[in-house]
Amino acid sequence: MIGYILFVLILLFLISSIFALSNELPREDKWKIRFAKDKWNSKSGTIIKYDKIEHFLCCFVLYFGFVLLKVDFLYSLYFVFLIGIIWEVKDAFLPWEKFGWYGGDGFSMKDLVADMGGVFLGTILVNLIMM
Q1: How far is residue 57's CA from residue 34's CA, in Å, rounded to a whole number?
Q2: Which residues contact 6 (CB under 8 A, 6 or more apart)?
Q3: Which of 4, 25, 33, 95 has minimal CB crowding within 10 Å?
Q4: Are 112 and 84 in contact (CB under 8 A)?
Q5: C-alpha distances out from residue 24 to 20, 40, 88, Å
Q6: What residue ranges in the chain does DSSP mark as E strands?
Q7: CA angle 31, 114, 105 (to 5 degrees)
Q8: Where are the domains of the chain?
Q9: Rg of the chain, C-alpha, whole Å
């Protein structure tokens, strides 16, 4: 039950922050969607130097965390994918130049692929451990 509550809180935080912080942007940029021009080896990570490794590890840990909190495997998969997509939507609207580490450089499909890779590895490890 706590895993589901945690998921809802994360979603509410991400979605509300998009709307709240977008009010600080100039009117012409408020709903302007930006796409990232990142590379696979981009060194724009916040905690870890490489951004894609950071995405991979964050989604791996999130997936594993939801499973440890007794959330169904399939729901855990959906939750982490949804959080990754909403995070990229947030990056599309909130520029890092204005919002620092919480902003982004645009929507990135490469980040989503790294997210899926982390969930994929988490799924494999959970299945191996549960056997």
Answers
A1: 24
A2: 66, 69
A3: 33
A4: yes
A5: 8, 31, 19
A6: none
A7: 30
A8: 2-25+36-130
A9: 15
